[in-house]
Q: What sequence folds into this?
């Protein structure tokens, strides 16, 4: 990642959550896009003015067939994996860009 992680992600980027490493082969055969997401962009919380990352799950659709959207505080989105809780995870950050 570059020096300013807050500028690292762009709308349309595909990212993976570190928990994808915990998925079994069977899980990924059933749901190939498990824990994969697409960045929508950064929004501003209307009350706190804090930045929120908006992203959609590429494995989870709503009743209309649209990918479900999620929001997470930007600081949490770009945080490092908790090594005490997940010592076996190789991924450094909670979400990392998938380089195509």
A:
């Amino acid at each position: 990642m570059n020096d300013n992680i807050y500028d690292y992600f762009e709308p349309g980027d595909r990212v993976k959550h570190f928990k994808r490493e915990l998925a079994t082969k069977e899980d990924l055969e059933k749901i190939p896009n498990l824990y994969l997401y697409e960045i929508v962009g950064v929004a501003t919380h209307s009350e706190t003015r804090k930045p929120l990352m908006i992203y959609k799950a590429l494995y989870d659709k709503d009743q209309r067939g649209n990918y479900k959207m999620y929001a997470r505080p930007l600081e949490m989105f770009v945080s490092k994996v908790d090594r005490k809780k997940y010592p076996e995870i190789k991924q450094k950050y909670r979400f990392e860009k998938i380089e195509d």
About this structure: Residues 5-97 form a domain with the SH3 type barrels. fold (CATH 2.30.30). The chain has two helices and five strands.
